[in-house]
User: Fold these one by one.
Assistant:
Number 1:
Amino acid sequence: MKTADNKAAGGKVGKLDFIFKASRRAKIFILIHILIYILLYVCTVISARSGAVIYIGENKLPVSAFAGVFSSVSNICLVVMVLFQKKFGLIVSLLIIILQMPILIVQAVVQKNLTSIPGLFSTIFTIAMIVIIYLNQSRIVREQKRMQDLFEQTATALVNAIDAKDKYTCGHSERVAEYSRRLAEMSNKSKEECDEVYHTALLHDVGKIGIPISLINKKGKLTDEEYEYVKQHSVMGAQILEKITEYPYLAIGARYHHERYDGKGYPDGLKGEEIPEIARIVSVADAYDAMTSIRSYRDPITQDKVREEIVKGSGTQFDPHYARLMLQLIDIDTEYEMKERVKARENDMSGVFSVGEHRSAMGDGIILSSRMKTIRMSVSSCDEDAGIPPSPSFILFDSLDGKIHTDEREKRERLYIEYGEVYFDGRTETFSARKMQTTIIEVGAADIENKDEYKIEAVRIDDHAMIRIADKYRTAEIIISLPDSSRYLYIALTGENCSISGLSIIRNEENCPDDYIPRISEKISYIDVAEGDMPNVQIDGFRSGTSEGTEIKDGLKLTFHTKCLPTARLVWHCPSIILFSSDNGKADGPNYREFAFMRFDGEFWENDKSCLTMLEVTKTDAFENWDAWMKHNMDGYDTEVTFRVEGNKIIVITENAGISIRDTAEISGFNKPIYAAITGDQIAVTNIRRSYSGGGKP
Ligand SMILES: [Fe+2]
């Protein structure tokens, strides 16, 4: 019974949910109208009972005549609430009126006050009026919703028809629409604008309906003639969508989504902001999805490479603003995995994984990090009759797509590097790893019952990794010293004559402590050279190290030498500058607050709401191309960063290999010292010196 009561109570609360869930703005709107209504009601009562008169010229006007005016305006107030706040407004309006009813009934029936009868009728009339308005409004909303649903269903059906033509880009339009909407949201567009962007992106390739299926699915690259024909899909799409006059932006998106920011796109060769904004948004989202999907003529490009393409295309192919937002989307998508890889892993884990000859089959890469991974499996011989024992093993490697490669071209393209192979019995083969060390412990895992079961624990911390392989009877502990700590470490199952089943992987949510793996070799240092005004810094991975902070004053100059670590391979493997504040001026100090992050390749982030950043990136004549930029960073160079302070603005200026950066950070409402420090990704920073442009020391 109690439960039933609770349910009933819950039900009532549920029905009134719209009141509790109403936005702050809606509640304030209602509150203001209630107050106006009360004021008008008081005016109505006072004026109705007043015997006073007002003289207008020689005419006398009794104050009581205004009672009707006040009463009418108060009724309009209720109608406005219903019109603008729908159900919430209706309930509040009805409550207000119903609360007045007993007073009017008592006056009319009990006190026989006949003057209150018109008020009673007026109130009943008002109730009827607001209910009719509400019902009519609900009908219009339902109709609009039905039309919207109809449009969306038609659009989705059309999009499915287009995507079905292209067997390689299934779901492309919907993904582009989702990314585009997120870009619009990140640009603080209104809900309506975000919806417009979504629908435009959803239908951007509608013109492909007129392109022959044989061209869309052609294996290999298109001929020039074929490409010219495929390019027409943007104009065809616009012609189809022009008929939807209610939504003119749909045709605009379809027509201009292949325009380029530098004017080299098609169909009209528009440049910069001549290209409608909606098309500039769709363009970057479209390119991102196209690169991360399989195409008839190539495999998907890896996330790092896609990111690099967007950095390179910022200001040339893409609007720099939306390219930057796309990069942010990629950066926060840390769990991103290519669809193909997910599929491969699922395949590995579902059935039985069999390897006949050594390495004749290989699993997909399992990435190792400082969170311990526990992998369990059963291993049996592929050929039990022949009495050959199974010999399972792991290959330790890194590649941009987390897969093992044997083809030489693919190895080069995917930057494939193999560190070694670890057999389940503790034997190892070392390739690119610096060292591997095995310890056999004659104690098995307590939670293993069968002799063919294995439990593997694997963890990687900086430039060392540990793999513990346990069966029922003993444990092999292998420590691997990697060439550096900047690259990824994957392990992939393989072996010889083994059949692996019941594979499961669990990742620990806690990080292992930094000293969890005993070191078997010293860390390779690239900063063993003379120091400047502060210690040199080796930055093995993204922001894994930061220089000392220097308080920013007008004219501050930071000079230093930077050189990529040997494994650096992407355009953003270069120095960055951070502007921050902390109690001790250190980048890991108490009350750390970061205002801006600026990378030498021209990327930046605002990290604090009180900081408004204006970044001007120009490529001077000294900028050859991105390959030359990477080589410049690999070779190493001396660089200089100057800081100017103008009121609450900090201007950071630097130019390197033709990329000129001028970053203006406007920091408001903050009066503690602001510091600058050097960080980056896969670089060695040495000989760091600080001075004022006047030659003094800060
Ligand atoms: Fe297109």
Number 2:
Amino acid sequence: MERIETRGLVLYNRNFREDDKLVKIFTEKAGKRMFFVKHASKSKLVVSIQPMTYADFIVKINEDGLSYIEDFHQVQAFKQINQDIFRLSYATYVLALADACLQDKVYDPALFAFLVKTLDLMEAGLDYEVLTNIFEIQLLGRFGVSLNFHECAICHRVGLPFDFSYRYAGLLCPQHYHQDERRLHLDPNVPYLIERFQAISFDELETISLKEEMKQKLRLFIDQIYEEYVGIHLKSKKFIDDLSSWGQIMKPRETGEEK
Ligand SMILES: [Zn+2]
């Protein structure tokens, strides 16, 4: 077994036998791994294995089976996220997506950094719905889905009020709308924003602000894309969908204009 020190983010834990736990941690240096924690309730490790805990871990990596946590320090808990059921449910979904798109043991420091940054920005109070959309769009490639939101699939012109077509698995410009009578009839701002989301930088993220109506259109389109091309159904996403149907009642009303 190899002993390493690495940043890591706890994805989830589950009970195993009487008082032991299995903990899935996305590590920066060794990808996602399953760790075995014996007598978890009495272990000093218990504070480090809660979902969404971000810490420096000293671990023993076992290539053929379960790995072990030796020690940890610099624990960062996402306090603001954990205090708000809306933020928490989106953050939980983002973790589940990162888990779903990556095989265990695969080194992916770029995804690790992107995931941690997304949580940091949710913690800092940025729009969790938009952050989630951006995360979903940038993850498409890891699900093996490559869609061109830049140009018309037929004439390759750019910068037009585009619509999306499943038949062409891409955009159609107004001149070629008629090529697919079942095109989605999107608000052209939707594909425009999706293209921006594909390559957005962390700095730009902090300046993005969208109206509620546009966010709903994005949510609907990204759901369609995931249904058609990714086909995963995560419990945490179902929870968000349920939350949005009755959650409006609970949401604190903002004064003045919608952001
Ligand atoms: Zn065209």
